[in-house]
Amino acid sequence: ECSPYAAHLFDAEDPYTPVRHLPGLCFTYCSDFHTKCHSVVKYLTNSRTLQETCEKDPSHFCNLINLADQDYCYPNVLRNNDLYSNLGKVVEDTKGCLQLCLTEVANGLRNPVLMVHSGDDTHRMFVAEQIGFVWVYLKDGSRLEQPFLDISGEVFTTQWLGDERGFLGLAFHPKYRNNGRFFIYYSILINGKLEKIRISEMK
């Protein structure tokens, strides 16, 4: 079962932060993990630094994989009711080793910015690209050939790295199944020079 805080444990929210090879473990838990499970580290990461440090200096190894925000390191994240109440469980195996899983939902997309469902019991997921396409993914993981929405001709985007303008939001009406209404939020350029944000109702 996947942790609902996997993005925090892997410190993956900030695109400018290097990708973590291992989840953030609180120091005390990491020390226990190292004692019981250090032999599996070489199978979990190809980082030579982490592998060598794990073998030579357990304390430094645990400092390397710890998180700056102690609220989100494991297992502290399980003990904060404000963060963890009513969410899924992070489980351990019989040796006390952390079990996390990541499931790939989609790939080959051009800067995806959101994934939402329509609340109509069809189990479809709608994935939007910043350039103005919205794709439908079915329960089996397949993607419909034609986009659900294409407003790429209206959305204002640039080639600048990190530019957040473009298709920014999608929300379905609570009664979408009956009325087919949904709402989109995106950047536009008027007369080639005036930048605006537009919110549109679609049906």
UniProtKB/TrEMBL annotation:
It comes from Cirrhinus mrigala (Mrigala). InterPro entries: 6-blade_b-propeller_TolB-like, Quinoprot_gluc/sorb_DH_b-prop. SUPFAM superfamilies: Soluble quinoprotein glucose dehydrogenase. This is Uncharacterized protein.
